Amino acid sequence: MGSLSTVSTSTVIPANPTQENHCLLSPFDLQLAEANYTQKVLFFQHGFANNSHEATIERLKWSLAEVLVYFYPFAGRLVDSPDGFLNIECNDQGAQFIVAVADATLDQILLHKSPRYIQELLFPLNHSICADGRSLPLLEVQVTQLKDAVAMAFSMNHMVVDGYSAWQFINSWSEICRGSLTIANPPSHQRFRAGRICTTNQNSKVYLQSVEAAQRLPPLSHDLQETLFRFSKDKIAHLKSRINTHEKKRGTVTNYSSFKALAIHIWVAITRARNLKSEEQTTMSFSVDCRSRLIPPLPKSYFGNAVHLIRMTTTVGELLNDANIISTVNLLQESIETAQRDERIRFKIEKWMENPNLTSVQGLANHIVIGSSPRFPVYESDFGFGRPMCARSGGGNKYDGKITLYPGKEGGGSVDMEICLWSSVMQMLDSDAQFLLQDLNSS
To answer: Is 322 known to be catalytic?
Structure first.
């Protein structure tokens, strides 16, 4: 189902030559050498119906060349630097732009359970890791004409961007494509090496050994399934109200955020679906933006990775005991407050720079990892043929327990959750009335 034909492949270079010779990679970036490329796709229902297909493709390529003047690291390649780490050489070798046609409908793609399907149909650079950016483009875009829609898929080297920077780039490109002469949120390229954030010895020998020995993840298992769950603003408000009500019953008042309420709800539901023993441990991880947390802070427009991984662990019995829900939320709150402190971020970076091994969270048992954010401006990406219908991610960096959050199309605090689980666990989650908040649906 859904054969793909490539129409054309071309290289797009910045419209003006880049003046910078190289761009440093920070410790936040360097840790991602073994990660897959970040893969995001936007679907546009009306596609090119009101435009000439050829003219629209040419405008997309022209505007990409223009926006690469601002986001020039995407047009470069990774190189080994004299200090033994990796840099981006800003050599204007360019980004790759692919035009394709797929024998598939939008519904066939969105309703398909296998993350391999969307990955293999819509994305280039499927099995590449970020360290491959020494020879591969740091950005590849594939525009695919479906039977009833258009998909714009972005494969971005994760050492170049985090989630905030990725959407900053995509939205800036769409601005220029719509005819703007400037972009509203120009990137800041104040990249820095470890000296800005830590004073420890920088063990580049260990780092290069880790990069050379970097393991490529095996192809996604056919037993891995992915489902998009849509939680309306009313469901999110209900989750938040339920936790705050528990807190009031204890005689204290804390206005817990929607994210904390949703994160605990997901963690509890997946742990329940996994049918684990009460004494087993379970872990939740997620990333937080460090731009405003560092002292001095990085600018909001900082283009690169500036996220910090937070991890919390408890027993299955403690997590699934509804009487402990406030204790679990407080554990989450304390983990966030501790991890977001400037000194804690610097401490973790210093420890990593002393022994910069590349590690993955994929191998952890009974683990969920929440990525992306419902605050990202996904639906502002209008390239001139309307706002996107929805956003999804490809198969890169996917494994059992990976959750990707997007803002809901309806707005108002609604959230779309892309959840990846083993098929037996997904079957349990799909039928879990508590997770789906079916009582709320019927009220």
So the answer is: no
